[in-house]
From TrEMBL:
Protein name in UniProt: Anaphase-promoting complex subunit 4-like WD40 domain-containing protein
Keyword flag Protein transport: yes
Domain Anaphase-promoting complex subunit 4-like WD40: 220-292
Subcellular location: Endoplasmic reticulum membrane
Residue numbers spanned by region Disordered: 1-61, 87-108
InterPro entries noted in UniProt: Apc4-like_WD40_dom (IPR024977), Sec12-like (IPR045260), WD40/YVTN_repeat-like_dom_sf (IPR015943), WD40_repeat_dom_sf (IPR036322), WD40_rpt (IPR001680)
Species in which this protein is naturally found: Eragrostis curvula
Keywords assigned by UniProt, alphabetized: Endoplasmic reticulum, ER-Golgi transport, Membrane, Protein transport, Repeat, Transmembrane, Transmembrane helix, Transport, WD repeat
The UniProt record lists the keyword Repeat: yes
Record-annotated membrane-spanning stretches: 420-438
Example of a GO MF term: guanyl-nucleotide exchange factor activity
One biological process term in Gene Ontology: endoplasmic reticulum to Golgi vesicle-mediated transport
Lineage: Eukaryota, Viridiplantae, Streptophyta, Embryophyta, Tracheophyta
């Protein structure tokens, strides 16, 4: 394939183990994405290789292979997408008299990627897959929906939190896909439709390396490889903020949960925080010597205040996470996490956990309060981890890779109803000590008093 590799956070690190040559070329496609059809290919069915075991608390999970390098992924807000069937009168009576608990709510993810432009034979597509199981979730082996993108590589995406659709970033700009749900709860009634007249403001603007909706979906922000930051009201697409910077590309951007702030990381320079109420700069968060910023994510603490996390590489040595106070915009602290390049980053919706993916295919889940490692899944993928996303209930972590695999890792057992696992461990140790004392009363009786 022709062109240059994308230069987002995936290729911005200078680490020994990180090679931009692993990424496919960023294609320049002349044909629009006009073919949208549901496909259930028999010969291209995802398969599950054995998953590696996780160290720490949590489930190692299993991977499913989808036949194309995956660059973007997100959970679907099914409650806002799928229209429920109208219940019949008999069904209402049966439901009222039945003591059987309702089945668990279905969960689905959308994956985007491909081989780019050229005759590699690797397709470009969006795939919707269902998550099966509750205690030990896995991705389904057969897609719910496949959307072919012809020669255009879906590199980044943003799923609207209220079910409007998906904004997908291609090499030459962004396109909007709208959900179509027929009456009914079943996943096979879900479909996507390309809206050709939508997002004309983002047509032919070049590759957008970062795309994000605000928490309530009222604002859309995109960050270009050419350094252009664009922020719009959604769905009116009225410009809120526009900043062009041809000297740097945008690596990542994120909204605060109250939609007041937008943090933007570029390929060089500080992390810039914008006040979206005034469209003015709230802060420029400086790097320290040797730091290279990559990802940024807002979260909140139990007292309701916000905190900003930024991942950084310290030269070629190690990756770390830096926390910032969002009132004084000063550093709270930083923690060395890994000697591998940080290639993906996510914060759970409940603010309890952080997750990073590495250039070596590993996944690390941390406690957001003290940044202590809770789970490490070594070699969760055979290639670079390209995307991470927590489910809406914060119990499951989705990860993807250029090795064509996606996996879900359960984090629900790490913390349940706000209770840490450490008291449980201490209780077990105490029980062992009591048992030992009971079995060795004669020895204890000989001890001086």
């Amino acid at each position: 394939s022709s062109g240059q590799p994308p230069t987002g956070p995936l290729t911005g690190h200078r680490t020994r183990a990180f090679s931009a040559s692993l990424l496919p070329a960023s294609p320049t496609c002349r044909q629009p994405v006009t073919s949208l059809r549901r496909v259930f290919p028999s010969g291209d069915r995802p398969r599950r290789p054995p998953g590696p075991m996780a160290s720490g608390v949590g489930d190692g999970g299993q991977s499913s292979t989808y036949g194309f390098p995956i660059y973007s992924a997100a959970w679907l807000p099914l409650a806002h997408i799928i229209k429920p069937d109208a219940p019949a009168a008999d069904d209402d009576a049966d439901a009222a008299s039945s003591s059987t608990p309702p089945p668990p709510r279905a969960q689905m993810v959308v994956l985007g990627g491909g081989g780019g432009e050229g005759r590699s034979g690797v397709p470009n597509k969006l795939v919707v897959a269902a998550v099966e199981g509750d205690a030990a979730p896995t991705l389904s082996t057969e897609p719910v929906l496949v959307v072919e993108a012809k020669e255009k590589l879906p590199y980044r995406m943003a799923v609207h939190p209220r079910g409007d659709g998906i904004v997908v970033s291609f090499p030459n700009g962004c396109r909007f896909y709208q959900w179509e749900s027929k009456e009914g709860k079943k996943p096979h009634k879900l479909d996507l439709k390309f809206e050709e007249e939508a997002l004309v403001e983002l047509k032919d603007v070049g590759s957008q390396l970062a795309v994000s909706f605000s928490g309530e979906g009222s604002t859309l922000a995109t960050g270009g490889e050419d350094g252009h930051l664009r922020v719009f009201k959604w769905p009116a697409m009225e410009s809120v903020l526009s900043e062009a910077d041809t000297k740097t590309s945008i690596k990542d951007l994120c909204f605060s949960s109250d939609e007041k702030f937008l943090a933007v990381n570029r390929s060089s320079g500080p992390c810039r925080v914008w006040n979206l109420k005034s469209s003015e700069i709230a802060a420029n968060l400086p790097r320290e010597a040797g730091e290279i910023f990559s990802f940024c994510k807002f979260s909140y603490k139990t007292d309701g205040s916000h905190i900003l996390f930024i991942t950084a590489m310290q030269g070629n040595d190690y990756g770390k996470i830096i926390s910032w106070n969002t009132t004084s915009w000063t550093r709270i602290g930083s923690k060395k996490i890994t000697r591998e390049g940080i290639s993906a980053f996510a914060v759970s919706p409940d603010g309890a956990h952080l997750a990073i993916g590495t250039s070596e295919g590993s996944i690390i889940i941390l406690d957001s309060k003290n940044m202590q490692t809770l789970v490490t899944v070594k070699k969760a993928h055979l290639g670079i981890v390209t995307a991470l996303a927590f489910s809406q209930d914060s119990k499951t972590l989705l990860s993807t890779s250029i090795d064509s695999t996606a996996r879900v890792t359960s984090v629900g057992s790490i913390k349940s109803n706000g209770t840490s696992v450490w008291p449980m461990i201490l209780a077990i140790i105490l029980a062992i000590l009591v048992y030992y004392c009971m079995q060795h009363k004669d020895i204890l009786a000989m001890l001086p008093r």
